[in-house]
Amino acid sequence: MSSARPGYPAGVSSSRTGAAGLLTPALTMTGAIALALALATVPAAGASAHDALESSAPAAGESISTDPGTVSLTYSDTLMAIGETTDGFAVQVTDAEGMHYESGCVAIADSSVTTPIALGDAGGYTVTWQVVSSDGHPTSGQYEFDYSPATLDGAHDGLTDPAVCGEPWAGEPDGAPVDEPSTAASPAPVDEAGSAATPTPAAETSDSDSAAASAVDADLSAAALPGWAVVLIVLAGLGVLAAIVVLVLRRMRAGGDDRR
């Protein structure tokens, strides 16, 4: 037989103890679920953190007076590059007018990225970068530096569009295709005295030239005869001439006798 508790009508039992007994396991289960969710979100938050830019050259806000030739960026962890490809990586350097002065090529080494640049006129430049973090996600950002050269000699002309690696850019060959190399003439040989010897061109020979050369050789040969030979030749010539004269005179006399 049940007895009524003080303050409660007879036949009515108190449910406070039963309710507390039911709520205690429910609260315990809720706390366990909340703790599990909290623990599950901790590594997820750590994994979602991308690599951060730790240093750069030129540095953010730096004022330089000479063209460094490159922009180098260093991050908080090793970047994720797949083989020899640089997909997902880009570094652009632009002036206040949006002209581009980067080569379009990037070199990746562990946590660093480098790209060649060729700056133009003095003023502010913006470096805009994108890399692939060690967690495999792309991350990007930008910063500015100031360029104040002592002279504008050698300033490069920027490109209106981002440069493509391997194609003409603001640097050498200064936005123009490289000329085909020309065949340079061989230098003249230098003699022992130190002066360059003048090369003699080879002349083409013809039949008339050969004949003239033979005549010249004959004249040279005649001029080379000794004196006694020349005297004999002259005397022989005079003898022949005298014989001709005598023969002519005899014929003239014979003709005169016949007429008589």
Order of helices and strands: HEEEEEEEEHH
Q: Tell me the strand percentage band.
A: 15-25%
Number of helices: 3
In angstroms, what separates the terminal alpha carbons? 215 Å
Q: Could you estimate the helical fraction of the residues in percent?
A: 25-40%
Number of strands: 8
Strand line-up across the major sheet: 1-3-6-5
Low-confidence regions: 1-5, 7-28, 30-47, 175-188
Mean model confidence by pLDDT: 73
Largest sheet report: 4 strands, antiparallel
Give a verbal description of the structure.
It is a single chain. This protein has 260 residues and is α+β, with helices and mostly antiparallel strands. The protein has a domain at 53-147: Immunoglobulin-like. 32% of the residues lie in helices and 18% in strands. It has three helices and eight strands; from the N terminus they run H-E-E-E-E-E-E-E-E-H-H. The strands form two sheets. Strands 1-3-6-5 form a four-stranded antiparallel β-sheet, with no helix packed on it. Strands 2-8-7-4 form a four-stranded mixed β-sheet, with no helix packed on it. The radius of gyration is 54 Å and the shape is rod-shaped. The chain starts with 15 loop residues before the first helix and ends with a helix. Residues 1-5, 7-28, 30-47 and 175-188 have low confidence and may be disordered.
